[in-house]
Amino acid sequence: MTKQLLKDVMPPKQPDEQPDKMLSTEKLFGFKSAAPVPAFSTKTEHVPDIDPDYQFEAEATRAILAGFSHNRRVIVQGYHGTGKSTHIEQVAARLNWPCIRVNLDSHISRSDLVGRDVITLKDGKQITQFQEGILPWSLSRPMALVFDEYDAGRPDVMFVIQRVLEAQGKFTLLDQNRVITPHPYFRLFATANTIGLGDSTGLYHGTQPINQGQMDRWNIVANLTYLPPEEELKVVLSKVKELAKNKDVLRSMIAMANLTREGFMNGDLSTVMSPRTVINWAENMQIFGDVHTAFTLTFLNKCDENERAIIAEYYQRCFNVAP
To answer: How much is the CA Rg of the chain, to the nearest whole Å?
Structure first.
């Protein structure tokens, strides 16, 4: 009991100031690289949990590892559901590298990133103190900061980020008359559905063009696409192991998903089946005991009425029956 109480009141482990070991990419990610990658021995509270079944895409993984190893600013672009943010997180998890994700939705303001004055009680008196935002907090630590939905950020927020995009970019806190020099092992990543040119198709509402001077400051742009069918099959089976005896059905489900992706990319559909949707479909198939009912409840009911004829044609091609 005493040991448990002591454990409860112990402060969380602090991250090491720098990586203290080098790891082989072949053991971690399944491919060879010119040099091992730096990593931390100690796992702290901000290190993501490892998903042992995660499937890494080699080219995108190399780009992300270059960000960690060589302090390159890396932005990962791709359609939704391809696992952009998770890819960065899972690389960080295997390196024991602390990682924080920030979703740049319309509610994220400049003060959220930079900080603000807050009123607190001290010795029974109200005092005003500056509470630093996530950007200066991350900059001063060995931390991987990931901006999700980078192309949906507000212009005033984007210009704040622009200050730190250069590898040695210092950050000035005007309210504090203080200049923050980035920690040597601070790393910056971002994910986006578009690549800074806006969305003329209407598929990603809320995205907008990004200042090209800012885009030019990203050192590496990686593209993440959907997995090949057999790789996606491994992912689905890793999540729904009970369906290992129904691989033929799962292959048909993945073929159906790929047809919706082709239709989405060609502008024929406004809704697409991501790998996440396929996993949900497989899980729902277990619940309802029927692949067709699970498909309707998982995906078809989300689709536009005017597009259901196209989806029915796809389904017929994959399952030889109408949904």
So the answer is: 23
The residue among 274, 273, 278 whose CA lies nearest residue 310 is 273
> Which amino acid appears at position 186 of this protein?
F
Torsion of CA 68, 72, 73, 74, to 10 degrees: -70
Q: Which amino acid is at 109?
A: S
For the ranges 126-130, 135-139, 252-256, 268-272, which has the lowest average pLDDT?
Answer: 126-130
> Could you tell me the maximum CA-CA distance found in the chain, to the nearest angstrom?
75
Provide DSSP, 12-57.
PPPPPSS--EEE-HHHHHSS--SS-EEE-SS--TTSPPP-TTPPPP
Q: Is the dihedral of CA 82, 88, 94, 96 positive or negative?
A: negative
- Six-digit token string for 206: 């809320």
Gap between the Cα atoms of 172 and 160, Å rounded? 10
Q: Who wins on pLDDT, 18 or 3?
A: 18
Chain position carrying tokens 């491994």? 234
> Percent of the chain scored above 90 by pLDDT?
46
The pair of structure tokens assigned to 129 is 């103190």
Instruction: Tell me the three state secondary structure of residue 299.
Output: coil
